[in-house]
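Researcher: Go.
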Amino acid sequence: MDKNLTAGQLVRATYEFKDIPRLYKKEFYIWEEAIERWKKEGLPEEFDYREYFMLDQPFAIGTYVDLGWCEPPFNPYFAEKVIEEKSDYEIIQDTAGRLLKVFKGKRHGFMPGYIKHTVCNREDWENNVRPRLKWDDKQRWEKFNENIEERIFSSLL
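Model: Structure:
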């Protein structure tokens, strides 16, 4: 197999279970706090994190329908809101409907405390979740044709 595959070709070959020269290298998110610390420790002020960490170029494979990613594809999503405030933490409801304990004013950079999940019993499923997962909801498909024509696997070709 060609050792000079594009990022898209490398991922496609991986998904097709072909022999690949290496794994695709990607970072989903680098915390701002980490970058600030690294700069104090000598990281150049201006740097391209993909080049610096030798990551592959990004690409997109998409269904162009909201199928979720790390969160369920609710339609509508739950409203994110603060349920309770304490001196150093908050109890919030996130867009997936979970109750989380988080540091006050922060939403990333740590593992939240999970207090209550969206589904704890059949009634929660029927009343709060099932109606938000309708595959035939027109909003879920609004831009599908437009998006699919514009970008169908273009980065993999």
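Model: The chain has two domains: 7-59, 81-151.
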